[in-house]
Amino acid sequence: MAAGSIDVRVENQLVRFICPVRIDPDRVVAELGGTRNSGVVIKAMDRPRATIVIDEEGRIVVHGTHRVEAARAAAKELLLRLGMDDNGLVAEMGPVVASFKFENDINLQAIPAQLPSGTAVYDARLGCTVLSDERHNLTVNIWPNGTCVVSDSRHANMVAMAAVYWKSVFADRGFFVERL
Fold first, then answer.
1. Are residues 121 and 153 in the same domain?
2. Residue 64 to residue 62: CA distance in whole angstroms
3. 59, 16 in Cβ contact below 8 A?
4. Residues in contact with 24: Cβ distance below 8 Å, sequence separation at least 6, in sequence order
5. What confidence tens digit (pLDDT) does each residue in 157-168 have?
6. 130 and 110, same structural domain?
7. Residue 64 gets which letter from DSSP?
8. What phi and psi values does residue 154 have, to the nearest 5 degrees?
9. Would 15 be classed as within a structural domain?
């Protein structure tokens, strides 16, 4: 998805599916080789490629897909392997993880210094600046080479709007630096 001249890529779309009939996590372990971990059952799927988590309430949470259709296909495959019908399967959309890249390098230390207090902090452990974007209700991790990873977004279009907005802010404030 392009945002002006910024290409936004959805890396992961979290989707939870609720079945009319509760999925028994013990069946996923016994019949499909799922693994118990901290009160949930995890099952890696090869086709479609996804990680499925069955929570204590028997709901299906799909990780590792970037399209809702792929998540639905993974949930349907799990149900079919259990001999269950996928009729009445209801999807709930979770957060999107997406990425984009600015054309220029970025002065990371300037961002927290010039933006309002609490908006951005430099994380030395990750080597990036973490920007809390309340305008778009998401978090942007920004690396010095212009790579950005967005979490907590509800939709890829919101990431695209944030990318365009922050590109303008960074340009106006002189945060971009020329690559050598």
1. yes
2. 7
3. yes
4. 58
5. 999 999 999 999
6. yes
7. S
8. -95, -15
9. no
Interatomic CA distance for residues 9 and 80, integer angstroms: 31
Amino acid at 148: C
Classify residue 102: in a domain, yes or no.
Answer: yes
Looking up residue 41, the CATH number of its domain turns out to be: 3.30.310.10
Q: Where does the pLDDT of residue 154 fall: very low under 50, low under 70, confident under 90, or very high at 90 and above?
A: confident
> For residue 155, which amino acid is it?
H
Using an 8 Å Cβ cutoff, are 106 and 169 in contact? no
Identify whether 48 is preceded by a cis peptide bond (ω within 30 of 0): yes
Give exposure, 140-150, as e/b (b: 16+ Cβ within 10 Å). bbbbeebebbb
Fill in the DSSP letter of residue 116.
Answer: P
Q: Note whether 83 and 105 are same-domain residues.
A: no
Q: 65-87: per-residue pLDDT in tens?
A: 888 899 999 999 999 999 999 99
Q: Tell me which residue of 166, 176, 163 sits closest to 105, measured CA to CA.
A: 176
**DSSP H or E stretch at residue 77:** helix 68-81
Backbone angles phi, psi at 122, to 5 degrees: -85, 130
Two tokens at 168? 């303008």
- The boundaries of the domain holding residue 115 are 2-9+96-177
Q: What is the pLDDT of residue 1?
A: 46
With beta carbons less than 8 A apart as the criterion, state whether 170 and 106 touch: yes
| Angle CA 102–136–109, to nearest 5 | 50
